[in-house]
Write a structure and sequence with these properties.
Radius of gyration: 20 Å
CATH architecture of the largest domain: Up-down Bundle
Order of helices and strands: HEHEHHEHEHEEEEHHHHHHHHHHH
Largest sheet: 6 strands, parallel
CATH topology of the largest domain: Dehydroquinate synthase-like, alpha domain
Oligomer: single chain
Helix content: 40-55%
Strand content: 5-15%
CATH class of the largest domain: Mainly Alpha
Number of strands: 8
Number of helices: 17
Distance between the termini: 46 Å
Number of domains: 2
Strand order of the largest sheet: 1-8-5-4-2-3
Bound molecules: zinc ion
Shape: globular
């Protein structure tokens, strides 16, 4: 059992010298069609003998079957750990208690973002390496050595950091292509933000990444090609996934959403987008009805509005074409609800990443940025319609 918390910021600032540059990534990333059928072979390369498979009931009955059969073919003992839907301390600790005496040497997290985040927390507490097999490309959780932990009601509560990155991230793109288009699109929202946040951190000599260190040029370059890829082929990839087709555009976007975005945010740094996006989870009807990447998209527009960046136009047009929210109404919010806007500003201000922005933030400045982005989004929605959004949110 390992219960000593690891804090990257404290670890790297424990020296008198300047902070080092750090690049974190999973030990191995494998992506392609049909890979769940070969999961056992990939685990055998890591000498896995007995592994827990964490997945929701639905996932274990579907994708999980393939994964478990392939593990059995590779003579790996499988311990089933059914996940109950929320990455909360309550759920994590219940899973740890259940697995404590099962003598597993690895934990496999199979599913969406919450399963993945919970899996990393459970593996850390059991002191075993983690393997992540995402079934959606909706977020950048799989490749990082941290998890966002929520209350049992789904409000963001804390972030846990781990000294070990996942040993293997393995993505079966046929499974991703079978999922609802909305998930891939949300992942694009999460991934495009990576570039805009890394860009801020690269030009701020005081910025510290979630890896607890200075941003690396490698992560900066990765985050740039991440956004570039999505702008180029994101719409085409969404069209393919809408008819459950897997092709080269889907492969590119899955890599951008999962690997490039993951490395990009963790070792390239965060700015105002993610603190604001996490603040939105304080509003129940937002976190109950919208995906992380959708909330990130509208938060990206707020950061770009604050920067007075020309990319606000580029991002908003792209978001409206693929069906990401571009104004508050598309998040079931209203610009008139000043109490909710105040909550967003207050929570954003408490997150150190937000202060990587070059200007001094105040509640008024954050609220103005949200409103400016909202107004801009309304003009875009007027001009281009909201057909894609309505298709994904019917
Ligand atoms: Zn994110």
């Amino acid at each position: 059992m390992s219960d000593k918390p690891y804090t990257p910021r404290a670890f790297f600032s424990g020296f008198d010298d300047a902070l080092p540059r750090v690049l974190l990534s999973p030990q191995k990333y494998v992506q392609g069609p049909g890979l769940l059928d070969r999961l056992g072979d990939h685990l055998a390369l890591l000498s896995v003998r007995r592994a827990a498979v964490l997945g929701s009931e639905r996932c274990l009955a579907n994708e999980g079957k393939k994964a478990i059969e392939s593990m059995k073919r590779a003579e790996i003992d499988v311990v089933i750990a059914q996940f109950h839907g929320e990455c909360s301390v309550l759920e994590i600790e219940a899973q740890v208690r259940a697995l404590q005496s099962s003598q597993i040497d690895y934990l496999i997290a199979l599913g969406g973002g919450k399963t993945v985040d919970a899996g990393k927390c459970i593996a850390h507490r059991l002191n075993v390496p983690s393997v992540v097999a995402p079934t959606l490309a909706s977020n950048d959780a799989p490749c990082s050595a941290l998890s966002v932990v929520y209350t049992p009601e789904g409000v963001q509560e804390s972030v846990e950091y781990f000294a070990r990155s996942p040993s293997l991230v393995i993505v079966d793109t046929n499974v991703v292509a079978e999922a609802d288009e909305r998930y891939l699109v949300a992942g694009m929202g999460d991934a495009i933000a990576t570039w805009y946040e890394a860009r801020i951190c690269q030009s701020n000599p005081k910025a510290i990444t979630p890896a607890g260190a200075r941003p690396s040029l490698a992560a900066y370059a990765i985050s740039e090609i991440c956004a570039q890829t999505i702008y180029e082929v994101g719409e085409a990839a969404a069209e393919s996934v809408a008819v459950n087709k897997n092709d080269d555009n889907v492969e590119k976007v899955v890599e951008a959403n999962t690997l490039l975005s993951g490395i990009g945010f963790e070792s390239g740094g965060l700015a105002m987008v993610h603190p604001l996006a996490l603040a939105y989870t304080r509003i129940d009807r937002v976190h109950e009805n919208y995906l992380h990447g959708e909330i990130v998209a509208i938060s990206t527009m707020a950061q770009l509005a604050l920067e007075k960046s020309d990319d606000l136009d580029k991002a908003a047009r792209f978001f409206s074409r693929v069906g990401l929210p571009v104004h508050l109404g598309q998040l079931s919010m209203s610009p008139e609800n000043s109490d909710e806007l105040k909550i967003l500003a207050e929570v954003t201000m408490t997150n150190p990443n937000a202060h990587h922005m070059p200007m001094k933030l105040t509640h008024e400045i954050i609220i103005q940025a949200i409103l400016d982005a909202h107004e801009f989004g309304l003009t875009i929605a007027d001009e281009f319609g909201d057909e894609a959004y309505r298709r994904l949110h019917n």
